[in-house]
Amino acid sequence: MVVSPTLLPELNDVLAALVAGQRAILGEQLVGVYLQGSFAAGEWDQSSDVDWVAAIRAPLTDEQVSELQALAEQLFSLPSTWAQHLEGSYITLEALRRLGHTPQQHWYLDNGSVVMQRSDHDNTLVVRWTLHEHGLALYGPPTATLVDPVEPDALRAEVQAVFRDWAADFTADPPRINSRWYQQFVVISYCRMLQTMQEGGIYSKPAGVAWGLAHLEPAWHELIQRAWQERQEDIWGKVRQPADPEEVRRTLDFVAYAIALADRLSSDDLDREARL
After folding, report:
1. For labelling, which of 35, 61, 153, 262 has a CA lying 20 to 30 Å from the CA of 67?
2. Helix, strand, or coil here: 11?
3. How far apart are CA 239 and CA 231, in angstroms?
4. Domain coordinates in residue numbering, the chain
């Protein structure tokens, strides 16, 4: 176990408890435990969730799922807000190598939840790219030895598919985007996805905001700046607060703009830099 994987001693204690519990339950079946997402990339903030992946040799048994469920409940009760924001999946070595290549579900613990469930949440090229490029080993060998690299155009194709699918999801379920938390999350996420479309990698929320302000039309700058400001101010307390209707309207307009721009960025007839 890495003694100080992050700059936060309180979070390090939570991660140590996570890994110790997983090792006690899984033994030799556990190959490694890895941070991915914002903490692996080093650009986290107080509103970040704690994304992890556990690499295992074989699928979990029913008994192991039950014991890991109990571990999740135990961790959630720790006196740390970080313990309530752990999010990760248990993925076999075979699936991890080409993660996102074929449809597959893994045992998954969602942010803010204590319920283990089967999910394809982490079965993406985005997660595989992040693990390969930035995965931080809490326990086990380096992540780059366990996962294949991802071609930039394959990553772009996956992200472009998310553009329309995600928009359809929150259009069909308006209460989601009418949350102050979700509204800012949508704006920042579409900035990040557009940056991926142009540059072919996965970048942090601060990097996505900076990229949006540097590259997107000035008409969207105030919306992006307000979304970033919202994130800095007790973002978890805003999950159940209604968003400003005008901000929601502007956000939906921004999403439509982002989808159209992503379509332009995916074409092969122009240089990506010239298409913004």
Report:
1. 35
2. helix
3. 11
4. 9-145, 152-275
Whose structure tokens read 């969730």? 49
CA gap 127, 48 in Å, rounded:
16
DSSP symbol at 121: T
Reported pTM: 0.90
Instruction: Just give the CATH number of 9-145.
Output: 3.30.460
Angle at 218 between CA 216 and CA 222, to 5 degrees: 105
Distance CA 148, CA 137 (A): 16
> Is the separation of the CB atoms in 43 and 6 below 8 Å?
no
In degrees, rounded to 5, the angle at the alpha carbon of residue 202 between the alpha carbons of residues 146 and 90 is: 40
How far apart CA 165 and CA 56 sit, in angstroms, is: 31
HSE, CB side, 13 Å, CA atoms: give it for residue 231.
Answer: 23
Per-residue pLDDT tens listing for the chain (276 residues) = 666 888 899 999 999 999 999 999 999 999 999 999 888 877 787 778 899 999 999 999 999 999 999 999 999 999 999 999 999 999 999 999 999 999 999 999 999 899 999 999 999 999 999 999 999 999 999 999 999 999 999 999 999 999 989 988 887 877 788 988 889 999 999 999 999 999 999 999 999 999 999 999 999 999 999 999 988 876 667 777 899 999 999 999 999 999 999 988 877 544 555 445
Number of DSSP helices (H) and strands (E) in the chain, helices first: 11, 6
Greatest extent of the chain over all pairs of C-alpha atoms, in Å = 55
In the DSSP assignment, the letter for residue 140 is: S
221-243 as b/e, with b when 16 or more CB fall inside 10 Å?
A: eebbebbbebbeeebeebeeeeb
